[in-house]
Structure formats: C-alpha cells, structure tokens
Amino acid sequence: TECKIASHKRCYSKYKTPCSGIADGKGRHPTQVFRVELSLLVGGSVKIPPLCERLMSTIERTGLYVEGIYRKSGAAPKVKELKAALEADGENVDLEEYHVHVLTNILKQFLRDLPEPLLTYTLHDDFLRCTGIKDERERVKSIFDVIKKLPKPNFDLFERLVFHLVTVTRHSDSNKMSPNALAVVFAPVLLGTSKKLQAQDAIAVVPQQIICVETVLKEELRTVKAKLDDIDTLESAEKKTGDRLDAVRASLRNSRQKSPQLSPVKQMSLPRQNTVDEEEEEEEDEEEEESVLGEYEEEMEDDMDDGEDGELAAEARALTRHLKSIHKEKHQLTFKLPMLETRQASSDEDMLSGDELESGSVHGRNEEYAINFDLPVMRPSLPQLNKQRISGPAGRKLPRQFAKKVQTARQTSAAEFEDTSEACLPEPIPTIEVCLSRHRQPPTAQGHVYADSMTVESSYVTVPGVLNLSGGDDDEIMV
Amino acid sequence: MQGEEALPKPQRIFKVVFVGDSGVGKSSFLHQFCNHEFRGNFAATIGVDFQVKTLETKTSVVTLQLWDTAGQERYRSMTKTYFRKADGVIVMYDINLEASFTNVRNWMTSVQEQVEPGTVTMLVGNKLDTAEEAGTKAVKTKNGQELAKSYEMLFYEVSAKTGANVDDAMEDLTRLLQEKEDKKMEEVLQLTEITTKKGCCGR
C-alpha cells in the first residue's frame, strides 16, 4: 500500500480514517498506542514511545519497593479503564492515580500487543540459539551481538526497558524480583515466534527464552552496578578534591596576607608535576583519571595566566580543573548509565559510533560492511556506492578502469566518513578525548549493525500484515 | 509413618485445577499441601505445574491430580485449556491484595466458560498469616463468603505459610468431589434400571 499503512490484514478494513498521503499516512487513529507497529510510535526526536517512557518513569518513581512488582496483576477493571483512557487521550491521563500493578500490567500488555514482539520474529531463533552456549561470557557476548541487530526503534525501547528492569531488580531486596523472576515474567512478553507451535512446544521454548532474558538482565545489572560504583568513586574523588581546594584557597589567602609577592622564577617552574603528585597521593585509586588529568593540564597550561601566589595558586587552579574534569566524567558516566552494552566491548566507542550513525555518516563503510555480514546490503538511497561491492571476491582482478574508479571512490568516501564523524562529536572535551583514544578502535562492527538493522527494518515495514494474523485475543501462545 | 503399601490402590482420580492471579500463592499452597512445608522462593510458575497427592478418606482412597497454573497474563490463554475435564477448580486470591479478589470474577467467567456444569469450585483466600500479623487484610471474610455463595463455591481462608486450614480445605473439597461422583454413579445406575425395564416390556 502506498501510504505505508501498517496493519493486520484483518484490521485493515476496520480503519476508518482515510489515508492522507505519505506525509501523515500513519493510517491509524492518532492516539492509538496499542497494537500499533513500534516504528510508527517513534520518530524524530522521539526514540521511545511516549507512553512507555511515562509508564516506566512513573513506575520507577512510585513502585520500586512494591513486592512482586511486574509479577502481580492489577485489578482487571482498572486496567481496562486505564487502557481505554490511554487510547482516547493518552497525554492527559494521570498515571500516578493508578496502582503500580495496573501500570505494570499496561506496560506488559503494550509489549504483548505489538504486532511483532519487541525482540522480533526474525531474531527469535538467533536468541534461542545463543542460550545453548554453556560458557557464560560467550553467551553474553553472542546475545548482545544479536541485540545489536535489532531494528532501531526496537533497540531503543529494549535498551530503556532493560535499564528499567535493572533498576527494578536492583531493589530486589524489597520487591523480591530477582533477575530470574523478572525474566520469567518478561521472556514470553518480549520473545515470540511466528511459527505456529503446539502448546507443548510453545512451553518447551520458554525456558530458553527465560535464559536469554535473564542473561541480559544479569549482565546489565552487573554493568550498571559497576558504573554506579565508578560514579561513587568519582564522587568521593570530587569531594576530596573539593576539600583540598578549600584548604589550598584558605592557605592562599593566608599567604597573601603574609607575603604579597613571590619570586617570579618560582612561578615559571610552577611544576605541573607537583600538582599531579599531590593528587595522586590524594586519590590513588583514580589512576586512570590522573593520567587523563595530566594530559588535560598540559593542554590548558598555556592558556592560564599565572597567579602571583606560585605553587599554591597553581595548585588551586589545577584542582579546579581537576574538579571540572571529574564533573565531566561523572556526567558522562551518568549519561551512559542506561546504555546497553557489554563492558568489555569498549563502551565509549560503541556509544559514540551509535550517535555518529544517527547523524547520517554511513558512507564509506561498505567494505567492512560486506566483510562482516553475509546479509546482502541494500542501499537504495546511495546506489553508486553499491558498485563498490563489485570488487567482490578478494582474488579476482578487476578490469583496470574499474579498479581505479573503485579505489578513488573508496578513498573519497572514507575521507567523507572521517570528516562527518569528527563533526558529529560534540565540542571537544579534552578529558574524554584522551579516554577515548586509548579505547578507540577503528570503527568496527557495532556501528554497522545499526546501519544494517536499519535497512532491514525499513524493508519489513513495507510488507505489513503478514505477521501475527492470529492476533485476535490478547495473549496467544498458539494452542 | 504410613508406608507405600499402607495405602491401597486409589479407587478414584480427580483432576483439580488451581487458578488465580499471579503471586497469590498457588504454588506455595500446593507445596504446603503435598510436602507440608513452605518454600519462600519467589519464582513465577511457567506455563503449568503438576502434582499428585493420594488421600485416604473414611470410605475410600482417592488420588488428586493437582494442576498448578501460571497466573501471568501471558499464559492465560493456555491456562484456559487446562480447565477442560476438570473435576474441581480452586480459585485463589490474596487476602491482602484487593485487586486479586476483584479478578476472581474474571477467573470465574473463564472457568464457567470451560468447565462442565456440576464441577466443584472452591474460593480460597490465601496469606491469612500476614493478614493477621501485619493487619493488612484488604478483603473481609464476609465479602469472600458472599462472593463464594453467589457462585455456589466452597470458601476457605488459609495460610500456605503456616499451613492453617490447608488440609481442611482440601479435605472438604475431596469430600464434595466424592459426593458428586457418587451422585453421578447413582444416576448412571438408575439409567440402566430404566433401560432394563424397557427391555422387559419389549419382551
């Protein structure tokens, strides 16, 4: 259908709103949120369906300590009422009026009602295959690799959801929802297959689904805890530095009163080393940060006017800078907290490349692309780049004129990529830059997975209606 | 201790299905009933669980097939299929959680859709211990009784943790199951009598 309307075949006839062209052609009631293709609920700056975001943050605010959250059901009439209200006028419903169990019910129902489960039919079998891996590290890695193949909207929502669930399970002392308990609840909600299964078979895959979700949750719980610890360390470092700064300033004031001027020679030697040493004494545990700071100072040194109070002033300045850098790093960590990634897989790089990609610097990656994925790459918007793929099998020699063209094309596109990626970085943050350069590898798979999944996604959006035709009742395991 | 031999071969087998909202304590109740212990773990049941318990009553030995279903909404469609050919259904709610009591009506609707008329049903309010200790009782005994009456169900308030009333409830259920069964048997017997009579007349 031209207007990209997405619906079940059965529901198609029920649409009352006429298609209003491609511009607005969502083909659904504007406030409808349930049983709607996920990609229609997001777009532009909206990465997660607003309803989900609101539900999750309300639950996080009010429900984290409720025993059996997500496991227990809310009162069915209330659930129905809220659902109807959300369908009618989602924005103006006060979610806090409802009990947490009702909210969790709605969230689960939303996920169950998606025309395709959040972790998609296509990847379902991949996920199940991963659960067979005995070695835990390997299993985590392969599951996360599959996750990266998710279409963008699904990935975003899944990322948020996992962070949310981790927040829930971090309070498992009070709410009793361990990662396993949550996995039992969420596995059948998130994973589903398009295959028609007998009830027995449908149950048989559930343990695997649970392992899958549980692995993700456990891993993320670990990561988030580690990140929180990092933030804690930074915070204590921040406090120490702050105290030290106060002390230095105080003594600075004192010394100013005593001797208004120090010898200028001393000023010049003003050794950076000194300050660094000082700080290393202060925070031995923060070695990484120290080295970062060292470099940071080096860059900043020249810009600063030397104060009259020599070492002390310098130290004060250094401390201020240090404080700033800690701030920044803390901020960065906080920002990264909900990111879905394995810690080993150089998190910084992963995250940045994701951002870059969004801003459209997908050119020039074709080579690695083709090497890393056996999926055919579809790139309708940039047909000329596809020609590069003619270079094909490594051994084959191309006719000369082609070979040359391909070569230049590659170079230019590679250059382009470099440029855009730089441009996309936010204003250079020295500390973080240093951090990155250590971790940074040449842009690798992770980025491409994104791009890849995006193409995949767009191709399935245009063939709606084939999925989940049986979707009459809310909750099928096919029987 | 009764050995295996002490229990003669069971004469009857009854299928009893447990339903109710997630987390009201169906599995715990069953565990208490079958093994006489409370296990505090908090894992949701997946799909369906199954236990067998043999009871000795005054007149005979019966076996109960106990089907413990998952309360999670996701499994609800599956749960429904287990009602078929059930001799007894136990609907459970959490005394401390009003929502679970409200949902009893929903459960009863799907039960009544599936089961044959004459199936024994029982309403059980669980977690009596916490209700008494913490005073968090949200559903009054009276309300439970009224609801049970309107559906012609048995009614018990129990505690799977302490075991209070668990055995009483199950014995009562078994008794009723047997009575129903006896009644049916008699009906069958009557039927044969009538047919033989007819046979007589025909000759």
TrEMBL record, chain A:
The terms under GO molecular function for this entry are: actin filament binding; GTPase activator activity; microfilament motor activity
Q: Which residue ranges traverse the bilayer?
A: none
Q: Give the UniProt subcellular location, in the record's own words.
A: Cytoplasm
Q: Name one GO cellular component term.
A: actin filament
InterPro entries xrefs: Myo9, Rho_GTPase_activation_prot, RhoGAP_dom
| Name of a matching Pfam family | RhoGAP
Q: Where is this region: Disordered?
A: 252-307
Write the record's keywords in alphabetical order, separated by commas.
Answer: Cytoplasm
Q: What is its main location?
A: cytoplasm
Q: What is the protein name stated in its UniProt record?
A: Rho-GAP domain-containing protein
Q: What is the lineage of its organism?
A: Eukaryota, Metazoa, Spiralia, Lophotrochozoa, Mollusca
UniProtKB/TrEMBL annotation, chain B:
Supply the SMART domains for this chain.
Answer: ARF (SM00177), RAB (SM00175), RAN (SM00176), RAS (SM00173), RHO (SM00174)
Compartment(s) of residence: Cytoplasm
Q: Which keywords does UniProt give here?
A: Coiled coil, Cytoplasm, GTP-binding, Nucleotide-binding
GO cellular component: a single term: cytoplasm
Task: Cite the InterPro entries for this sequence.
Answer: P-loop_NTPase (IPR027417), Rab (IPR050227), Small_GTP-bd (IPR005225), Small_GTPase (IPR001806)
What GO terms are given for molecular function?
Answer: GTP binding; GTPase activity
Its name, as the record gives it, is: Uncharacterized protein
